[in-house]
Design brief:
By secondary structure, this protein is of the alpha+beta class. The chain has 7 helices and 8 strands, in the order ααββαααβββαβαββ. It has a single domain, classed as 3-Layer(aba) Sandwich (Aminopeptidase), CATH 3.40.630. Bound molecules: coenzyme A (COA).
Length: about 220
């Protein structure tokens, strides 16, 4: 699963050691998740993040069937690393592992009004720089076209700063225009195009990299403007 990054877990000791040497960050929402401290338990938000329109909260085992079914959507398959054969059991295992290890923050995006599940937003630490958070996201088909992903990314970015990260980044396939619009609407800066950035499901991607340093974050990001 793109957001239940198994590959990161093999590299966790380096990240963990770096984080454990950090002074604690005294910000509500960066504490332990309430599901057990885990190795990087501070990574999960202690309270849901919300802007009044969408809510982000940690994925729960009960969400697994929805996640697996939604991830089969053609657009999600085309533009993310979600496996085509993802099962609810595999998702449940990944959610359980995330809560135990605190490897990353895999968050459900919900409609703040109805509580309906809309999609997925995740923040994980860069393998190369523990001060950098990597963002990924998708929405179920019914949730698209109303700015929910950009709202979710803004919430993740704000939370990343609160947790002490210095930089956030994300990448999209060069042809994924909708995702690039989301990144820009959330205030990230288009930094560069990288040929052969990564091979995903057998396809070598030319990627557009977006990033933002905390010192460059605009005071009023351009959502709804
Ligand atoms: C990417 C995704 C989250 C965006 O969903 P969304 O927030 O509802 O975005 P929208 O459908 O409103 O599209 C965002 C913008 O791109 C525009 N857009 C969408 N498809 C487009 C296309 N093919 N060409 C040009 N513009 C396009 C929309 O008009 C919209 O413009 P606006 O910001 O001016 O309103 C959603 O399409 C998705 O889940 N896709 C599959 C998974 C995915 O790509 N994840 C990101 C991986 S990096």
């Amino acid at each position: 699963m793109s957001t239940m990054r198994r590959t990161h877990q093999r590299r966790l000791p380096t990240v963990v050691n770096t984080l454990l040497r950090r002074p604690p960050v005294p910000v509500p929402g960066c504490g332990t998740s309430g599901h057990g401290a885990g190795i990087l338990g501070w990574v999960l938000p202690a309270v849901p993040l919300s802007d009044g329109e969408v809510v982000l909260r940690a994925w729960r085992p009960a969400d697994a069937a929805w996640y697996a079914a939604t991830a089969r959507d053609r657009q999600i398959q085309r533009w993310t690393s979600e496996p085509a054969d993802l099962t609810a059991d595999a998702v449940r295992d990944a959610i359980d592992r995330m809560h135990r290890t605190g490897s990353h923050a895999g968050l459900a995006i919900l409609d703040a009004g109805t509580g309906a599940l809309l999609g997925n937003a995740a923040l994980s630490l860069s393998q190369h720089d523990p001060n950098t958070g990597e963002i990924s996201y998708w929405l179920g088909p019914a949730a698209r076209g109303r700015g929910a992903a950009a709202r979710a990314v803004r919430l993740l970015v704000d939370w990343a700063w609160q947790c002490g990260l210095h930089r956030v980044k994300l990448f999209t396939h060069i042809d994924n225009v909708a995702s690039q619009r989301v990144a820009e609407a959330a205030g990230l800066i288009r930094e560069r195009v990288v040929p052969s950035y990564r091979t995903i499901k057998g396809e070598t991607w030319t990627a557009v990299i977006y990033g933002l340093h905390r010192s460059h974050r605009p005071a009023e990001p351009p959502i709804g403007t």
